[in-house]
UniProtKB/TrEMBL annotation:
<dbReference type="InterPro" id="IPR012319">
    <property type="entry name" value="FPG_cat"/>
</dbReference>
<dbReference type="GO" id="GO:0003684">
    <property type="term" value="F:damaged DNA binding"/>
</dbReference>
<keyword id="KW-0234">DNA repair</keyword>
<dbReference type="InterPro" id="IPR010979">
    <property type="entry name" value="Ribosomal_uS13-like_H2TH"/>
</dbReference>
<keyword id="KW-0479">Metal-binding</keyword>
<dbReference type="GO" id="GO:0034039">
    <property type="term" value="F:8-oxo-7,8-dihydroguanine DNA N-glycosylase activity"/>
</dbReference>
<keyword id="KW-0511">Multifunctional enzyme</keyword>
<keyword id="KW-0227">DNA damage</keyword>
<keyword id="KW-0326">Glycosidase</keyword>
<dbReference type="InterPro" id="IPR015886">
    <property type="entry name" value="H2TH_FPG"/>
</dbReference>
<dbReference type="Pfam" id="PF01149">
    <property type="entry name" value="Fapy_DNA_glyco"/>
</dbReference>
<dbReference type="Pfam" id="PF06831">
    <property type="entry name" value="H2TH"/>
</dbReference>
<keyword id="KW-0862">Zinc</keyword>
<feature type="domain" description="FPG-type">
    <location>
        <begin position="251"/>
        <end position="285"/>
    </location>
</feature>
<keyword id="KW-0456">Lyase</keyword>
<comment type="similarity">
    <text>Belongs to the FPG family.</text>
</comment>
<dbReference type="GO" id="GO:0003906">
    <property type="term" value="F:DNA-(apurinic or apyrimidinic site) endonuclease activity"/>
</dbReference>
């Protein structure tokens, strides 16, 4: 799943390509992905793109129109397997709707102003059997419920260690892995970076969220460093390379069976529901392997 660093880099990459461009048409190929109906998708036609940004794990594209409402936002939640793929040429219109990877297609007007033929643009795709990608057209991003209920951004200056400690204390005995992933507590962290943060902090995924100040300090420092380093690595990386860059930067996530880069022990995996996580027993659990069944109790909100 694209998380805070990848979505931020994706927004920056698209901003260089999109800002100032005019939308010719938006075609929805996966009807279930569109979560709003008013304003309609057609309202984006002939709108000028004025900005791109991120809210949690949501990609937000701002547009301006000649009619009311003048300002609209195309909001994409890419879920686990969604992505945005740039197209250098105008694609042929899709002829059918189905369960293929294409969820939506945005075609831009040609930069020279010639509206006779559509120009370049991007596709929103989802390579998964279970379709969870969400597309919203709204007058304000906060009209998207999953944005309105987001917790604080972990790299904002206002996200202090004291605020982090308050979040953990409020979560009580909840397992820390689930708390870090809970978007209503902290925005933008998913399965991969929660694995990396906990490994850097040498902390078990099952550790209770309420913890002594020394543990809070260690976990907060790890969170800041892991996310900050990931944002720096992703800065300037083109959208087509962001997924591979993310994989290369992982120390334990997705590396089952490989050697831990810190202690050399074998990275282990726990499977729960339809997901997994990875950890190092030597670094994080005192050498004790974790039982898979424990994570069935992890409460994680999208």
């Amino acid at each position: 799943m694209p998380e805070l660093p990848e979505v931020e880099a994706l927004a920056a990459d698209l901003g260089e390509r999109l800002i100032g461009r005019t939308i010719r048409r938006v075609q929805i190929a996966e009807v279930a992905a569109l979560k709003t109906f008013d304003p309609p998708v057609d309202a984006l036609e002939h709108a000028v793109i004025t900005g791109t940004g991120r809210r949690g794990k949501h990609l937000v594209i701002d547009v301006e129109r000649d009619e009311e409402p003048r300002h609209l936002h195309l909001v994409l939640h890419l879920a686990r397997s969604g992505w945005v793929r740039w197209r250098a040429e105008a694609p042929k219109p899709t002829t059918g709707r189905g369960r293929g990877p294409l969820a939506a297609r945005v075609v831009l007007e040609r930069p020279d102003g010639d509206e006779g033929v559509g120009g370049d643009g991007f596709d929103v795709t989802e390579q998964a059997t279970q379709k969870r990608l969400a597309i919203h057209v709204v007058a304000h991003p906060d009209q998207v419920l999953s944005i309105a209920t987001l917790g604080p951004e972990p790299l904002d200056a206002s996200f202090t260690e004291e605020r982090f400690a308050q979040i953990l204390a409020h979560a009580g005995r909840a397992q820390i892995k689930g708390v870090l992933r809970d978007q209503q507590r902290i925005a933008g962290i998913g399965n991969a970076y929660s694995d990396e943060i906990l490994h850097a902090a040498r902390m078990s995924p099952f550790h209770p969220a309420s913890m002594p100040p020394d543990d809070v300090h260690r976990l907060y420092a790890s969170l800041q460093k892991v996310l900050g380093d990931a944002v720096e690595r992703a800065h300037g990386v083109k959208a087509s390379s962001l997924k591979s860059e993310k994989r290369q930067g992982m120390r334990v996530h997705g590396r089952k069976g490989e050697a831990c880069p810190v202690c050399g022990d074998t990275v282990r995996q726990v499977i729960y529901a339809d997901s997994t996580f990875e950890y190092c027993a030597t670094c994080q659990t005192g050498g004790k392997p974790l039982a898979d069944r424990v994570l069935s109790r992890l409460g994680v909100r999208r």
